Amino acid sequence: MKEFAYARAGDAAEAAALMAERPDATYLGGGTNLVDLMKLGVAGPGLLVDVSRLPYDRIEHRDDGSVLIGATVRNGDLAGDPGVRERFPLLAQALLAGASGQLRTVATVGGNLLQRTRCVYFQDVSKPCNKREPGSGCPAIGGAHRDLAVLGTSDHCVASHPSDMAVALVALDAVAHLRSVDGTTRTVPVAELYRLPGDTPHRETVLGHGDLVTAVELPPPPGGAAMRYRKVRDRWSYAFALVSVAASVAVADDGTLADVRIALGGVAPRPWRARIAEERMRGGRPDEETLREAARAELEQARPLPDNAFKVDLATDLIVAVIRDLVARKDRA
Amino acid sequence: MTTATTTRQTVGTPMTRVDGLDKVTGAATYAYEFPTPDVGYVWPVQATIARGRVTEVDGAPALARPGVLAVLDSGNAPRLNTEAQAGPDLFVLQSPEVAYHGQIVAAVVATSLEAAREGAAAVRVSYEQEPHDVVLRFDDERAQVAETVTDGSPGFVEHGDAEGALAAAPVRTEAMYTTPVEHTSPMEPHATIAAWDEDRLTLYNADQGPFMSSQLLAAVFGLDQGAVEVVAEYIGGGFGSKGIPRSPAVLAALAAKHLGRPVKIALTRQQMFQLIPYRAPTIQRIRLGAERDGRLTAIDHEVVQQRSAMAEFADQTGSSTRVMYAAPNIRTTVKTAPLDVLTPAWFRAPGHTPGMFALESAMDELATELEIDPVELRIRNDTGVDPDSGKPFSSRGLVACLREGAARFDWALRDPKPGIRREGRWLVGTGVASAHHPDYVFPSSATARAEADGTFTVRVGAVDIGTGGRTALTQLAADALGIPVERLRLEIGRASLGPAPFAGGSLGTASWGWAVDKACRALLAELDTYGGAVPDGGLEVRADTTEDVELRASFSRHSFGAHFAQVRVDTDTGEIRVDRMLGVFAAGRIVNPKTARSQFVGAMTMGLSMALLEIGEVDPVFGDFANHDFAGYHVAANADVPKLEALWLDEQDDNPNPVRGKGIGELGIVGAAAAVTNAFHHATGQRVRDLPIRVERSREALRAARAEAQKRGPGAAEQGKPVG
Predict the structure, then answer these.
(1) Is B285 among the domain residues?
(2) What is the ipTM of this complex?
(3) Is B550 a catalytic residue?
(4) Is B631–A118 a contact, with Cβ atoms under 8 angstroms apart?
(5) pLDDT digit string (tens) for A239-291?
(6) φ/ψ (deg, to 5) at A293
């Protein structure tokens, strides 16, 4: 049997000390992805430091309108939080669009952010994978890549990030609170938590060994915004996104787009903030032509492969549809 | 126990599953769960090449690990009788040759599951690799007409002159259709416990046919018939994949023999995709010739599907086409192309399911071409005699099902024009397709016994794979004996209960039920000679239906049905939603409406899943399936399944079988996919002929529809606009 040690940390300091001792240690949250990867032989930590019971299980709605979400809050609890449902509906929608009820009950916010790609080659240790074994090659580029990324990829890796929640967080300008093994804390925007693969696809985030996500902070929602998370997938529940769009739109009195935020899921190695599209839309009239031109400009950077080229047009159409519907307030929560 | 003196007939009533409580409380014992002292665990080592040979198996690193008992490979595994009449896939570890990716090339037995798994990961296997080919092509020059397909008929059958009739036909359609690899995906993965007692083998096996499996295994292990007991008390779904023992079951028996102790195996879900057969992908060309009034003059159905390089296996993909419609000229050709793959095998309604996707799509295309209602087109081509055998049908309810379904689906209100119904961002359409499955009955034996305490015991080598067979047989036996079910004990799920067919081909209840009925009635007659009193020690009667089945009148025996579906397609994204499905079936007498409904609704769901979701993604580079878990291989989830209705017509069938029912398990999937894809065509105006219709194909269709609308000019831009 492949042995590993398990320790449940009582507080962050204890967790950090455990991590500092062992370079082969890994934090364990809900385990809904890590345990699968251990079974598959993809992950083989020598020590699991269980942080799922650290005291980061609260959702704090602050007076200024911001929200501090503890990293051990379960995905299901976050989706059901009345304040989140009312003021950040796209986050609740994204959470409910992910996984299954059973998984959401177990999965934590911190773990959701740090889940790994579902690329079939990454998950199959009998195959090469640059992310799993640097330098071994990327069979996905010439093989099964229908579900993989078209934006932000490299010649070394085309893996896509699977999270729905993270896409909503990126659209909402959420910030991750981190604690290092030496006890220092810092914040990083969720959008900047992830690295693009380049020639080091095995380095996925900016976290150092032992860095612990303790919370995610949502700034106050933009005033008068309508929000929506829309996910296109192969079946109507329990499937990863082919393409998803998280968007928030505020329309000025004159009918122009005062505030627009868009993030894409299923198309990139990280939740993809569509800043080019936002830039082109902001201040303009939300007519079909403007929206489409803006969405196209975002997707111009895409590097599609034969079997995922459909995602480029699909993402374009989905951006247009979501913004159009939000402007019409059809989807206002 | 009830003391009721009057016993009401239970057949035809919706009796709740007799084993439902045992299943939901965990009391039902599945193959892997039989307590087995001193059991070893075996874990396969699987080939990482698709073709070549093993040059070395280094088991030393595994043997050095704690708990590892043995490493098996083709050098030390016990010998099998490779002359036996069995698929070569079963001759596990008998040679170093590798015929497919994932093939068992070694195995580790250990004292725990974990140790076996870790041991297997430590075994080092060296290969001499050869180039492989795993991609099915219509023009594969190695493709040969199958000598026989799985229903025993020839791969090539022609009546009349299809080519000549097509040339002369006033109206012709021609199209290619493809269906992908589909995986059976039962809830219970394959599992086996194997235990030897000298030259006797007992297998607790996830198995659809314990008696037939015992015969097969006896042959493979070179044992006397009767030397193998197969126990299959509860099965968590099979869909054909457990129709015979597969290679992991043979591996367990080999390992148990090698070690001299019982050994068990349970596959992971990933291994299910690698070691358990799948539905062969098909490429089909259908050409139809018709008069302008819609009467078919010719059908030419040509199929190319894959077999393995090791063994022929040819689904009966042309067989529905031979009996469906009254065309004077019908030609069906089933070819197989040998590829470096695991041999495909049965999957729910083998052959009929992909074949009828193609035929029923083609019928829809012809209806569109002729501007004839697709229900009416099928009715016009109904036939009183089987066009293949020339025999009359024992009963044929196709037209009645189409009419009943059309009435219930408000088909008369349907605007036949495709691509014009818009609801918000959705295009909406409806579709129809016929269903068909042969009505098989195989000989079976059964035993009925009157006990001294006034109860009865009925034994039959049947198996309930989750369909409700145990409940149906309980009803049939209790009614035949004229007793309440509480006074009956039914024993099934063991080879030693006597010759009986498997739960496959939708023939279980009709075949076993006939023997059960016969045994029960014979027992009552025998009891009469004792004046109705049970003699000391009880009274037992055995019955066998071999002669009864042979003496049946010469009819063409089939069941039929009709599927209706409504789908909507999102014009922004191409997403498809099935709003509702209706299936109407004529399958003789329905023994249990509750379990029958589950069967039909389940099969229709699988048809929906086939239409929109399921595809085993062949990886040409590695030679395996890229997606091999349920995150990557999508079957319908609850959210995909809409309002789904199944109903059946009363049907009197000319049949001496007292069960008076035809098989229903597979009928519900045949044609279901075509109803969905025909509805997609009606919604969008575009035909997708390659399954499944996932979002990229749907979007291609929408793009083509927009392009056509533009070509027709601004006046035609009404396409896709709201109506009414």
Answers:
(1) no
(2) 0.96
(3) no
(4) yes
(5) 999 999 999 999 999 999 999 999 999 999 999 999 999 999 999 999 999 99
(6) -65, -40
Taking only the tens place, the pLDDT of each residue in A317-326 is 999 999 999 9
Distance CA(B676)–CA(B567), nearest Å, equals 7
Q: Is the peptide bond before B131 cis (omega within 30 degrees of 0)?
A: no
Structure tokens at A122: 């990454």
Residues B695 and B653 in one domain: yes
The tokens describing A56, both together, are 């980061």
Q: Is residue A100 part of a domain?
A: no
- Domain containing B193 equals 34-131+185-275
Chain B residues closer than 8 Å to A235 by CB:
612-613, 634, 636-637, 639-640
With 90 as the cut, is the pLDDT of residue A330 above it? no
CATH number at residue B510: 3.30.365.10
B640: nearest CB among A118, A236, A310? A236
The answer, for A128 touching chain B at a CB cutoff of 8 Å, is no
Inter-chain contact B619–A313, Cβ cutoff 8 Å?
A: no
Within an 8 Å CB–CB cutoff, is residue A102 touching chain B?
A: no
| Alpha-carbon gap, residue A316 to A242, rounded angstroms | 13
- Strand segments, DSSP code E, in B245-389 are 263-266, 278-279, 282-290, 296-308, 329-339
Which of chain B's residues have a Cβ under 8 Å away from the Cβ of A314? 573-574, 695-696, 699
List strands edge to edge, sheet with B191-197.
B68-73, B104-110, B40-46, B263-266, B191-197, B200-205, B228-231
| Set B147, B451, B666, B708: catalytic member | B666
Residue numbers in chain B where pLDDT is lower than 70: 1-6, 714-724
Query: In the prediction, which pLDDT does B343 show?
Result: 98
Nearest Cα residue in chain A from B116 = A1
What's the pTM?
Answer: 0.97
CB–CB of B573 and A317 under 8 A?
Answer: yes
Determine contact: A236 vs chain B, CB below 8 A.
yes
**Alpha-carbon gap, residue B513 to A312, rounded angstroms:** 57
DSSP 8-state symbol, B494: B
* Mean pLDDT score, A157-182: 98
Interval A177-236: pLDDT, tens:
999 999 999 999 999 999 999 999 999 999 999 999 999 999 999 889 999 999 999 999
Q: Is B647 a member of any domain?
A: yes
pLDDT at B114: 94
* Domain count across chain B: 3
Q: Does A2 touch chain B (CB under 8 A)?
A: yes
Amino acid at the residue B317? T
Cβ count near B187 (within 10 Å): 8
A44 touches chain B (CB under 8 A): no
